Amino acid sequence: MITAIVLIKTSVDRIPEIAERIASLESVTEVFSVTGTYDLIAMVRVKQHEDLAEVIPGRISKIPGVEATDTHVAFRTYSQHDIEAAFAIGLDS
């Protein structure tokens, strides 16, 4: 699974509407409204790198009100949740 973090600039007055449209796209697992340079952050998870082109410039960037995107592809995922789950295998709570 390939994970991309997509930083998105939008029309400020349309953030909730745009966030909902992005969240409804296949391969988008979460959308966060954030402070700072960008307005939204979307987590995109796909099976192949080629699929990123279909989702990000092919769909996200074409949503009216999306002004710019900046995409970062993750090399590895580090998660406290994953670590705890791995050590809990086979153990009773």
From TrEMBL:
GO terms for biological process: response to amino acid. Residues 6-77 form the Transcription regulator AsnC/Lrp ligand binding domain. PANTHER family: LEUCINE-RESPONSIVE REGULATORY PROTEIN, TRANSCRIPTIONAL REGULATOR AZLB. GO terms for cellular component: cytosol. InterPro entries: Dimeric_a/b-barrel, Tscrpt_reg_AsnC/Lrp_C. This is AsnC family transcriptional regulator. Transmembrane segments: none annotated. One of its GO terms (molecular function) is sequence-specific DNA binding.
